[in-house]
Amino acid sequence: MSERRTIAGMAAPLPISNLDTDQIMPKQFLRGIDKVGLAKGLLFDLRFDAAGQARSDFVLNRPEYAGCRILIGGENFGCGSSREHAVWGLLQYGIQAVVAPSFGEIFYSNSMNNQLLLAPVPQAAVDKLLADVGHPMTSWVTIDIEECSVRSRNHLVQFCLSARHQRMFLDGLDVVGASLSYQETIAAFARAHWARQPWLRAVAATTRKRLNHA
Questions:
Q1: For the chain: N or C, fewer Cβ within 10 A?
Q2: Residues 133 and 139: beta-carbon distance below 8 Å
Q3: What global pTM score does this model have?
Q4: What sign for the dihedral angle of Cα 127, 132, 135, 139?
Q5: Torsion of CA 83, 168, 77, 41, to 10 degrees
Q6: Shared domain check, 167 and 188
Q7: How many folded domains does the chain comprise?
Q8: Between the CA atoms of 154, 159, 163 and 165, what dihedral angle is there, to the nearest 10 degrees?
């Protein structure tokens, strides 16, 4: 992953309250054993009708919002089950950030750990952003990760981001990469631990060896 200071691009309005992860990624797309092909399932029942035809009135199917990178959502975005596929599907579709008044707790953690930026801002600020992105001609939004700000054509709003999550985005790290950045510190702790308590090392193997010779 590469370092990022900003996320910028067309934003699409999706002001649906309590949009849950089952809607974001329906169950029929959870059958695979890897992450491949999840973009197809993103918001499937909202994007397509029962016959599998695209709903022309849904925002992500409108040609003027093609290639959008940011969603402006409703409160409690990503509530429901803990399926991480919802995050993977958003990323595969090309969504890099979601701005909303609030998020499901597990969805928030899954998103931030996978480099999908979630920016919680007050409802009044979301309404202002929606007023801009509701028209394709004024839908460009820039999110500054260093300044924790969201700028649309006519509005600038701030959001909160923990120091850990901010560092992960600025350094281009997901949760695995962030953990690996402490690899030497972890190794040093392990060496000191075994030096202080060598009798605890390989205790299972030692016990099994003794039992085999009993």
A1: C
A2: yes
A3: 0.85
A4: negative
A5: -50
A6: no
A7: 2
A8: -90
Instruction: Identify which of 121, 128, 113, 104 has the alpha carbon closest to the alpha carbon of residue 175.
Output: 113
pLDDT at res. 56: 95
Residue 116 and residue 205 in one domain: no
Query: For residue 132, which of 157, 156, 101, 153 has the smallest C-alpha distance?
Result: 153
pLDDT tens across the length of the chain (214 residues)? 556 799 999 999 999 999 999 999 999 999 888 888 999 999 999 999 999 999 999 999 999 999 999 999 999 999 999 999 999 999 999 999 999 999 999 999 999 999 999 999 999 999 999 999 999 999 999 999 999 999 999 999 999 999 999 999 999 888 888 788 888 999 899 889 988 988 888 788 878 888 887 6
Residue with tokens 């600020």: 125
pLDDT of residue 200: 80
Domain residue limits at 197: 183-212
> How far from each other are the two terminal CA atoms of the chain, in whole angstroms?
53
**Of 131, 68, 122, which Cα lies nearest the Cα of 99?**
122
